[in-house]
Amino acid sequence: MSDDPIPAGDTLSVAGATVAIERYDGPAGAPELHFAHANGFNARTYRSLLRPLARDWAITASDLRGHGATTLRAEPDEMETWDIYGDDLIAVLEALGPRPRLLVGHSMGAVASLMAAARRPDLASGLLMLEPVTGDWPRRAWMALLRRLGLIDRALPLVKMTVRRRATFPDKAAALKSYRGRGAFRTWPEEMVADYVEAGLTADGTGGWRLSCAPSWEAANYRLGGRSLVPEVRELRCPATVMAGTENSTVSSARLALWQRLRPEMRIITLAGASHFLPMEYPGPVRAEIARFLAARSSVPERSAVPAPL
């Protein structure tokens, strides 16, 4: 790890606001990759996953709306659909330079990456979704009913827990102590927990620290739940892979089977024992799949008139 490129912080101007990004420059002429994080996290969280990849890739990772140091408007009462994340990602990719990149995302970031790839095929040379959040029809209908009845906070433990989540700390050391080895962070390497804390807290102006992603915003995203994503999968024009776990996964085997019927060339990788936090628990297989995209790109003859896919 010590010889791998260290990310440089940067910002982009998007829709009159600031989007915070991290850059891993990689070697000259390297193919480009963009990483989108999960709900409640930030780009820095995945540094230990991404740094080794910068030996071969030029990487950017952005803080999504309402997360990290990004200042795009994030009002929980206005949150109606995750489509906004797809639109934001398209704007980020255009600001970085409108050219094809391998789009990689975890959880909500995987959904945003799929939306961007489907809507703007010119911006995606490949797509890797890590534990995308989706939902089968019965669950989507049930959650819609709960939202209409105003009962979703009571019915969904994840929403209830998030709303009550501690949002302030006297210092970052206290936050790290409260997360290490507990709850959602139980299966994470300590380095990833530390990186999450480093970029996930903002000085509150009174000497303390608050979560960069407000629990109310994180909960607003959870209330919406997953959707089928079938229209987006139908529209894909680039090579795509889905990696899913077997423990509390957010994408069912039935949903994966449906997507593969729609796109037989889509790669489906299931990691036994992995949870929704697959990239934290199994970074090696994730990097190996990204390397496969690079190998596929390199295998296309330069004389081909068809753009080389990643």
Q: What is the H/E order?
A: EEEHEHEHEHHHEHHEEHHEHEHH
Give the fraction of residues assigned to helices: 25-40%
CATH topology: Rossmann fold
Q: State the distance separating the first and last CA atoms.
A: 25 Å
User: Ranges with pLDDT <50 over ≥5 residues?
Assistant: 301-310
C-alpha-based Rg, rounded: 19 Å
- DSSP, total strands: 11
Structural class: alpha/beta
CATH classification, class level: Alpha Beta
Separate helix tally: 13
How large a portion of the residues is in β-strands, by DSSP E? 15-25%
Q: Major beta sheet, specifics?
A: 8 strands, mixed
Cross-sheet strand order for the largest sheet: 1-2-4-3-5-6-10-11
Quickly count the domains: 1
The global form is globular
Mean pLDDT: 90
Query: CATH homologous superfamily, by name?
Result: Alpha/Beta hydrolase fold, catalytic domain
Question: Which architecture per CATH?
Answer: 3-Layer(aba) Sandwich
What does this structure look like?
The protein has one domain (1-135, 226-310): Alpha/Beta hydrolase fold, catalytic domain (Rossmann fold, 3-Layer(aba) Sandwich). It is α/β, with parallel strands linked by helices and 310 residues long. It has helices at residues 47-50, 83-96, 108-119, 137-149, 152-155, 157-163, 172-179, 190-200, 215-224, 230-235, 253-262, 278-281, 283-298; strands at residues 8-14, 17-24, 32-36, 58-62, 101-106, 124-130, 168-169, 201-203, 209-211, 240-245, 267-271. Strands 1-2-4-3-5-6-10-11 form an 8-stranded mixed β-sheet, sandwiched between helices. A 3-stranded antiparallel β-sheet has the order 7-9-8. Residues 301-310 have low confidence and may be disordered. It is globular and about 55 Å long. The protein contains 13 helices and 11 strands.
